[in-house]
Design brief:
With 258 residues, the chain is α/β, with parallel strands linked by helices. 45% of the residues lie in helices and 15% in strands. Strands 3-2-1-4-5-6-7 form a 7-stranded parallel β-sheet, with helices on both faces.
Length: 258
């Protein structure tokens, strides 16, 4: 295969959780631009419908857009089984569904801790397991999990122990599955973005005491664009990264270099 063809995703099927907005939606758009048939999964029906129709209006073929709450393990398994039956494959799984809560250690109630873990850690695992089973049976597949620099460093000045712990777990889950499944032809990697200009981050501009510190602590002095995360997701999803598994790729404008 020539170098120019390594990012060609023609004849592949890509499933993106959290695909209705932000990084997930942009990653789906990028995978489609490289030729993949995209399947969007999200628990938010309204934004899912909006995203699918915006993509279709832009001439992008959306294979399916289905409501799925990734915390529901049985529903995740049923969805993976149905999609494999319908599409015959899922070559790529991007786990972008995620939430953040900023309560400190003493203020985090039980239900909030459980919710963050449920979406970010359990949801990622249920999806890896359900889709990974089929990928292993086919002998190929690439899984890209959304970790975070918050799984590597401790953010400041805000507190978010549940989020940071959850992303640390996503990184270690990524490495564990990568090692376990490496000989089955299934690669598992994670992206560790810094502050990215999605709704999750940009709404914090209302709190300059946080937002300005974030920019100040980022050597490049700006937030990343969703497209800059999506491009790296395509790299990890594609044959361009065929010898990469168990990696946590930092995309943070240099934040973790300081
Ligand atoms: P976003 O809020 O724009 O998108 C997240 C999507 O996940 C939403 O569409 C939401 O409906 C969906 N979702 C939430 N709970 C779900 C559930 N239980 N089941 C299915 N879908 C669910 O956020 P984003 O900024 O695009 O973040 C995407 C991922 O990237 C997250 O895992 C986040 O932690 C990670 N990340 C984001 C940043 C950032 O600065 N934006 C930085 C590092 C990592």
């Amino acid at each position: 295969m020539g170098y120019r063809d390594l990012l060609d995703m023609t004849d592949t099927v890509s499933v993106v959780t959290g695909g209705a907005s932000g990084i997930g939606l942009e990653t789906a758009r990028a995978l489609a631009a490289c030729g993949s048939t995209i399947i969007l999964l999200d628990q938010n029906e309204e934004s899912l419908a909006r995203a699918a129709s915006a993509l279709r209006a832009a001439g992008i073929a959306v294979g399916a857009a289905e409501r799925l709450d990734v915390t529901q393990s049985a529903a995740v398994t049923a969805m993976a089984d149905r999609l494999f039956e319908q599409f015959g494959a899922a070559d790529v799984l991007v786990n972008s569904a995620g939430i953040a809560r900023l309560n400190g250690g003493l203020e985090t109630p039980d239900d909030e801790w459980r919710l963050v873990m449920d979406v970010n850690v359990n949801g990622t695992f249920w999806c890896c397991r359900a889709f990974g089973r089929h990928m292993i049976a086919r002998g190929k597949g690439s899984i890209v999990n959304l970790g975070s620099m918050s799984g590597i460093i401790v953010n400041r000045p805000q507190t978010a122990p549940s989020y940071m712990a959850s992303k640390g777990a996503v990184h270690q889950l990524t490495k564990a599955l990568a090692a376990e499944w490496a000989k089955s032809g299934v690669r598992v990697n994670a992206l560790a973005p810094g502050y990215v200009g999605t709704d999750m981050t940009l709404k914090m501009r209302e709190r300059p005491e946080l937002f300005n510190v974030w920019l100040d602590m980022t050597p490049m002095g700006r937030c990343g664009e969703p497209s800059e995360i999506a491009a790296a997701a395509v790299f990890l999803a594609s044959a361009a990264s065929s010898y990469i598994t168990g990696s946590i790729l930092s995309i943070d404008g240099g934040y973790t270099a300081w």
